[in-house]
Amino acid sequence: MGCALVVLVVAVAQRRDGPVGDRTVGEVTRVGVADGAAVPAYLRAAGDELARLDAPDGYALVAFAAYLTPARAASALAGTPVSVVLARVPLPGRQTEIVRIAALRLPDDVVGGMAEVAGHKDREAADYRARAAAPAAVADPELRLRYDTGAAVAAREAAGYRAGCACVYAAVVRAAPDALRALAGRAGVRVVDPAPEVTRLDRTVFTPPLPEQRDVARPPADTGPDAAGGMGDSSEAAPTVSVPSPGDRARVAVDGSPNPASTS
């Protein structure tokens, strides 16, 4: 009995870090699986909390079993109020940037958000190409390889988002406990992690497991020729793309600049 209690406490600890202090935004709540934590333990702990949940409408993190297109994500979440989706282009052997897209209407807002990200990635690729052509990179083959690789990866990300790729792997929703439990039983939904403590999305970091993460939460292996040069670092500071509901589409924010280490 004592051992079971210890396992539960550890599993819960892997799901929640928060709120913690942050000099830029104040208190930050983290919801999801911690880096280096066991994914099966996280899934069990989230499922146990969902089964016991007895609270008014609240936020929850939904992770999918596979990367979905905007249309398939809309189908999986049909009838559930959605606030945000998380996406990344799953390129084999490459860590790619995680993007957070505000999405009140699915699939339209996700498609619009992906188009904004594609434009951002086009500019990122152009920036990398300019850096690769600079004298410092021309004189340093290793540095030029890093910039050339960054340009190629950004270009592939841009093409994927522009085509409405199967890139959505999680969403943040708000619903009552019974609705969340029903959502957890839908095909393609891997886990629903209730987060009743969340009151502000702009002060919450969501870290759902990627579909390919089965044992331990870790960044995807970066196996490119320049992997040792710094392209494989992990980062939580992914750009945020806000695509508001109709009538306010001019207010779109994409935060983040080209960075060889900007990854999932």
Brief overview, please?
By secondary structure, the protein is of the alpha+beta class.
What does this 3D model show about the protein?
The chain has 264 residues and is α+β, with helices and mostly antiparallel strands. It has one domain (2-241). 36% of the residues lie in helices and 21% in strands. The protein is built from 7 helices and 9 strands. The protein has helices at 2-15, 39-52, 70-76, 108-133, 135-138, 141-162, 177-184, and strands spanning 16-22, 26-32, 58-68, 82-87, 99-102, 168-175, 189-195, 204-207, 240-241. Strands 7-3-6-4-5-9 form a 6-stranded mixed beta sheet. The protein has a 3-stranded mixed beta sheet with strand order 1-2-8. Strand 1 and strand 2 (26-32) form a beta hairpin. It is elongated.
